[in-house]
């Protein structure tokens, strides 16, 4: 194996050491499923601040991005859903955090486009709403006044099989760093995600200029069937092998139970 292709680094701390304050970080995961929790804890320990985070959601109050949020490390968040995090809501409504809420499919495509070299794209999602017209509150002040609003976006009418429709121009997202968690990966950075943990992880890996993957099972090159690779190693610059304890440390976002019925 060529030494230059071995992307494994010794620790999560070493992997995130060059993430500076003010960076934009794309984070994989959906709810608490498939989130790069070890890398986010390393980022918390590194003490960086003023971060802009891109991801589907902001975790919960004590896990995932919620830990960075609680420590006051996030300046801005681009997300599609933030309903499970009370501290997120408090910071947003008190003017401590700027938030750009984006339709989920649009966010996914903005991240994919950023990794594909596509500057922007048209989508029908949001046409005829404040998503296109502007005016969505991005930041409040301490008194609850809107001080930063979303700008109006370019729109254009295209012919479709259902007649002319208005579409909205959305710009791609290219983050300074991408943080993802994979079920399996090799030393070249080829990644496999398991079940619903696949979610936003491939997109975060694509849009990060430097992508760091924490991997539950590290294998040697050639052990992963190429047909099973979800994210090719070309998108990944660093790999962190998790310990069995780190790999097993997964939270349940909402635990629901019901009485056991008799057989």
Describe the structure concisely.
With 263 residues, the protein is α/β, with parallel strands linked by helices. Helices cover 22% and strands 29% of the residues.
Helices and strands: which structural class?
Answer: alpha/beta
CATH superfamily name of the largest domain?
A: Glutaconate Coenzyme A-transferase
| Helical residue percent band | 10-25%
Mean residue pLDDT: 94
Backbone CA Rg: 20 Å
Largest sheet: 8 strands, mixed
Q: Write down the CATH class of the largest domain.
A: Alpha Beta
Could you tell me the CATH topology label of the largest domain. Answer: Glutaconate Coenzyme A-transferase
Q: Count helical runs.
A: 8
Question: Would you write up a description of this structure?
Answer:
With 263 residues, the chain is of the alpha/beta class. The protein folds into 2 domains: 3-119 and 173-248, Glutaconate Coenzyme A-transferase, CATH 3.40.1080; 121-171, no CATH class. 22% of the residues lie in helices and 29% in strands. The protein has helices spanning 12-15, 37-46, 65-70, 86-93, 104-116, 130-133, 201-207, 244-248, and strands at 24-27, 51-54, 74-79, 98-101, 120-123, 137-140, 146-149, 155-160, 163-171, 175-186, 191-192, 208-219, 238-241. Helix 5 (104-116) packs across helix 7 (201-207).
């Amino acid at each position: 194996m060529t030494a230059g292709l071995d992307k494994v680094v010794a620790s999560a701390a070493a992997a995130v050491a060059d993430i500076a304050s003010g960076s934009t970080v794309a984070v994989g995961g959906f709810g608490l499923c498939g989130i790069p929790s070890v890398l986010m804890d390393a980022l918390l320990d590194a003490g960086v601040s003023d971060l802009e985070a891109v991801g589907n959601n902001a975790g919960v109050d004590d896990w995932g991005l919620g830990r960075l949020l609680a420590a006051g490390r996030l300046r801005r968040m681009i997300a599609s859903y933030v309903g499970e995090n009370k501290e997120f809501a408090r910071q947003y409504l008190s003017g401590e955090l700027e938030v750009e809420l984006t339709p989920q499919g649009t966010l996914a495509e903005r991240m994919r486009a950023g990794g594909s070299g596509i500057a922007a794209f048209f989508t029908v999602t949001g046409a005829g709403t404040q998503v296109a017209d502007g005016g969505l509150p991005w930041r409040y002040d301490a008194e609850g006044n809107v001080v930063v609003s979303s700008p109006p976006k370019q729109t254009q009418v295209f012919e479709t099989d259902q007649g002319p429709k208005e579409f909205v121009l959305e710009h791609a997202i290219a983050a300074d760093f991408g943080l993802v968690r994979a079920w399996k990966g090799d030393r070249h950075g080829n990644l496999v995600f398991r079940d619903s943990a696949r979610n936003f992880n491939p997109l975060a890996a694509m849009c990060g200029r430097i992508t760091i993957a924490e991997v539950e099972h590290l294998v040697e090159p050639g052990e992963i069937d190429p047909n099973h690779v979800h994210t090719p190693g070309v998108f990944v610059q660093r790999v962190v092998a998790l310990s069995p304890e780190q790999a097993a440390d997964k939270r349940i976002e909402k635990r629901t139970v019901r009485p056991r019925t008799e057989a």
